[in-house]
Write a structure and sequence with these properties.
Chain lengths: ~110, ~120
């Protein structure tokens, strides 16, 4: 089973700053199978990025995803007040079918 | 617009069966691309995928190894619902449970989620 590690655990930044979040896989992952989510307290996760770099419907272009193999990055170019939340990466493996999530990175206000 | 509406009890006794339902609207339960998933979240285990059901000329299921001996996911096509049944629960199964859609088309992600149901396992 592929294990996802996210860093840092917490990122303390100010509005307007750039956020760079890392997701590292224990084995190579298909870029097609890597996604990112945002979760706020009391809410379900919200899909931000799928296929490592494609923005989901309605997601602002300040969110971008990149990477391949075992290293993936979510970048928020300029933090807005509503972006302070927890972010998770997720991958899919097909043999056997399994979805796994990273432990999350919390982006909080500095 | 796809909507997933969850229902079910918030309290289950140890050793009993946890049962939740997810009502699907805005998409067909028979979609030949989508899959209907159950995911749970707890402080100790984080986000954990439990399993899925999907229709490709017939119904298929996949389950996580961690719960494979205790889980069944059943589509109710007459009501456009998907139900989760997890038996022999223990306090470790206490979590927020979500249903979610994988839209398919080789995306392998979850684009619509239910509102979540906090299930507590306690006597």
């Amino acid at each position: 089973e592929i294990v996802l590690t996210q860093s840092p655990g917490t990122l303390s930044l100010s509005p307007g700053e750039r956020a760079t979040l890392s997701c590292r896989a224990s084995q190579s992952v298909s870029s097609r199978s890597l996604a990112w989510y945002q979760q706020k307290p009391g809410q379900a996760p919200r899909l931000l990025i799928y296929g490592a770099s494609s923005r989901a419907t309605g997601i602002p272009d300040r969110f971008s995803g990149s990477g391949s193999g075992t290293d993936f990055t979510l970048t928020i170019s300029r933090l807005e007040p509503e972006d302070f939340a927890v972010y998770y990466c997720q991958q899919y493996g097909s043999s056997p079918p399994i979805f796994t999530f990273g432990p999350g990175t919390k982006v909080d206000i500095k | 617009q796809v909507q997933l509406q969850q229902s079910g009890p918030g309290l289950v006794k140890p050793s009993q069966t946890l049962s939740l339902t997810c009502a699907i609207s805005g998409d067909s339960i028979y979609s030949n691309r989508a899959a209907w998933n159950w995911i749970r979240q707890s402080p100790s285990r984080g986000l954990e995928w439990l399993g899925r059901t999907y229709y490709r000329s017939k119904w298929y299921n996949d389950y996580a190894v961690s719960v494979i001996s205790r889980i069944i996911i059943i589509p109710d096509t007459s009501k456009s619902q998907v139900s989760l049944h997890l038996n022999s629960v223990s306090p470790e199964d206490t979590a927020v449970y979500y249903c979610a859609r994988d839209p398919g088309d080789f995306t392998s992600c979850f684009d619509y989620w239910g509102q979540g149901t906090l299930v507590t396992v306690s006597s």
